[in-house]
Each structure stands twice: as structure tokens, then as C-alpha cells.
């Protein structure tokens, strides 16, 4: 049974990867490539070289991706590298043999919807363990070697790419390509993290019992509490009490703060972003089914 479940999971991952590749190929063939627009990363480099030399972009995509795939094998895992090879080869084949008809000639719509389809495809692929663009792999590698943040590396990579685009092609193409890249990045974010916006709270108060009851009854959110101790300096007064930890939808952020303030204005609260949740009663809370 366990082996069957694992096999079905692998099949499901590859089916989703195929869907992601299809979405990315629509974004490229139906929007970006017919109009000479770029995206960021390896895809953008392949498009730029193709525009300058006339070499088939599908061939360039494979060649330029090779060093990044080697990096993925060495720095991340062989499994992700193999999945990425399959995805990139599939994308290159679809781009080469499939001819999607251009949907619009409006440059703004091309940049937005090309980025939307491409971002959705890359996001679905990443979520299932494959990389369609090697710039993320480069970010992971340089982060491990030099401690530079991955986001900074990818941003610098693309700033350089769009600067070269402005110099070799045109400033207008570079500007539309930046818009495409921003849409792509945002859609990848949505696909990876979901559209729900969660926020976590850690609450420290002497009136923890009243706050717990108010959160449960008035907000309908689940919570966890663990024992803590408060003191002043090394030898100051110490007092044991419960520390409250809860996760809510951001739309209820002000309501939670108001609830806590009404009980204890001196309560100490820490807010932090939460990207994803599993289990618990959060789903019931978000659907307002207590």
C-alpha cells in the first residue's frame, strides 16, 4: 500500500510538472517570443541571444541550462536535477514543435499575460520539485558559498540582463521585459504560497487566560500555549505564566490586537508572516465554521 501511494504521488508530480511546462510554453510562444519580449533568468538570456543571433531558442534554452543543472545536482539534490532536466527538455521540445497563434499585439497585455502564464508554469514546476529557470539554482549556490541572500542574487542577475537588453535591443523592450519579470515573479509567489495571507502572533501577558478565552470565543481561531517565565535582568523578579501562539488570516489582524488591548494594554506581542500551514483548526477558522 505504501509503495502504491508513493508511485501515485510520483505520477501526480510529473503530471503537474507537465501542466506547468505547458503553461510556460503558452506564455513564451503565444505572448513573449512573437513580440521579442524577455523574461528574467536563463529564459531571458536564451531569448536575448536568439533575438541577436537567430539561433533556435529551444536549443539555446538547453545549452544555457546545462551549467545550472550541474549546479543543481551538486548543491541541491540529484532528484531535483533529474526532474529539472525532464522539464527543460519538455519545454524546449514544445517551444520547437508547437506553434501557438499570437493572441494579441497589445504590448501591455503581452507583458502581463505572458508573465502570468510563464509564472504559473514555473511556480507549478518548482512546487513539484523541478526548476525551469536556473537563476534560482545560482542563487542557492552563491548563498551557500558567500552568504548573499538568494533574492539579492536573482535581482542582480536580472538587473544585469535587462541592462544588456536595453543596450543591445531597446529601452522599450527592456522596460516591457521588466514588467513581464515582475508579473512572473509575483505569480510564482502566489502559486508557491497560495492566495491566503496568514500572520502569526506570539502574545505575552499576565492575563493569558482571559486572552485565550477571548481569542477562542470572539475570533474563533485556534491557539497553542506554552509555559514561560518573565524576569528583570539576571536576578530580578521571575513569574511563570503561559505564552500564547496563534495564526490568523491577516484580515483579522486589527481585531486580534483590539481584543488583546481591551484585556491588557501592556501585553507584549510579536507579529510574523506565515507562508503555509498544515493541520490544526486553521481551515475551519478561515471558512468561518467553528
Class by SSE composition: alpha+beta
Radius of gyration: 24 Å
DSSP strand content: 5-15%
Give, in spatial order, the strands making up the sheet with the most strands: 2-3-1-4
* Average pLDDT rating: 82
| Percent in helix | 55-70%
The strand count comes to 4
Number of domains: 2
Q: Low-confidence parts lasting 5 or more residues at pLDDT below 50?
A: 282-290
The number of helical elements comes to 11
Tell me the series of helices and strands, N- to C-terminal. Answer: HHHHHHHHEHEEHEH
How would a crystallographer describe the biggest sheet?
Answer: 4 strands, antiparallel
What is the distance, rounded to the nearest whole angstrom, between the alpha carbons of the first and last residues? 35 Å
Write the layout of secondary structure elements.
Blueprint: H1 2-32, H2 41-53, H3 57-75, H4 78-97, H5 107-127, H6 135-146, H7 150-168, H8 171-193, E1 198-204, H9 208-219, E2 223-230, E3 239-249, H10 253-263, E4 268-274, H11 282-286
Antiparallel strand pairs: 1-3, 1-4, 2-3
Helix pairs in contact: 1-4, 1-5, 2-3, 2-7, 3-4, 3-6, 5-8, 6-7, 7-8, 9-10
Q: Which keywords apply here?
A:
290 residues, alpha+beta, Alpha-Beta Plaits, 4-stranded antiparallel β-sheet, 11 helices, 4 strands, elongated, disordered C terminus
Structure description:
Mean pLDDT is 82; it is low at 282-290. Helix content is 64%, strand content 11%. A four-stranded antiparallel beta sheet has the order 2-3-1-4. The protein is built from eleven helices and four strands, in the order ααααααααβαββαβα. The chain has helices at 2-32, 41-53, 57-75, 78-97, 107-127, 135-146, 150-168, 171-193, 208-219, 253-263, 282-286, and strands spanning 198-204, 223-230, 239-249, 268-274. The two termini are 35 Å apart. The chain folds into two domains: 2-193, no CATH class; 198-286, Alpha-Beta Plaits (2-Layer Sandwich). α2 packs parallel to α7. It is of the alpha+beta class and 290 residues long.
Amino acid at each position: 500500500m505504501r509503495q502504491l501511494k508513493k508511485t501515485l504521488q510520483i505520477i501526480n508530480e510529473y503530471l503537474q510538472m507537465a501542466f506547468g511546462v505547458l503553461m510556460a510554453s503558452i506564455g513564451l510562444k503565444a505572448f513573449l517570443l512573437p513580440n521579442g519580449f524577455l523574461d528574467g533568468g536563463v529564459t531571458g538570456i536564451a531569448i536575448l541571444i536568439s533575438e541577436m543571433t537567430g539561433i533556435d531558442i529551444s536549443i539555446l534554452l538547453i545549452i544555457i541550462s546545462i551549467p545550472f543543472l550541474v549546479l543543481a545536482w551538486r548543491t541541491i539534490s540529484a532528484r531535483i536535477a533529474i526532474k529539472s532536466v525532464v522539464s527543460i527538455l519538455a519545454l524546449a521540445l514544445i517551444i520547437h514543435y508547437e506553434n501557438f497563434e499570437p493572441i494579441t499585439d497589445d504590448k501591455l497585455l503581452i507583458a502581463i499575460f505572458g508573465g502570468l502564464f510563464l509564472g504559473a508554469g514555473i511556480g507549478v514546476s518548482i512546487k513539484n520539485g523541478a526548476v525551469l529557470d536556473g537563476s534560482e539554482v545560482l542563487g542557492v549556490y552563491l548563498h551557500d558559498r558567500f552568504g548573499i541572500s538568494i533574492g539579492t542574487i536573482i535581482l542582480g542577475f536580472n538587473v544585469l540582463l535587462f541592462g544588456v537588453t536595453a543596450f543591445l535591443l531597446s529601452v522599450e523592450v527592456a522596460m516591457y521585459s521588466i514588467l513581464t519579470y515582475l508579473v512572473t515573479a509575483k505569480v510564482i509567489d502566489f502559486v508557491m504560497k497560495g492566495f491566503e495571507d496568514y500572520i502569526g502572533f506570539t502574545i505575552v501577558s499576565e492575563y493569558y487566560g482571559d486572552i485565550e478565552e477571548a481569542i477562542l470565543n470572539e475570533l474563533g481561531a485556534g491557539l497553542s500555549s506554552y509555559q514561560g517565565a518573565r524576569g528583570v535582568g539576571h536576578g530580578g523578579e521571575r513569574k511563570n505564566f503561559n505564552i500564547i501562539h496563534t495564526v490568523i488570516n491577516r484580515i483579522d489582524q486589527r481585531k486580534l490586537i483590539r481584543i488583546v488591548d481591551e484585556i491588557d494594554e501592556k501585553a507584549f506581542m510579536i507579529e510574523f508572516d506565515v507562508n503555509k500551514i498544515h493541520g490544526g483548526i486553521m481551515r475551519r477558522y478561515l471558512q468561518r465554521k467553528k
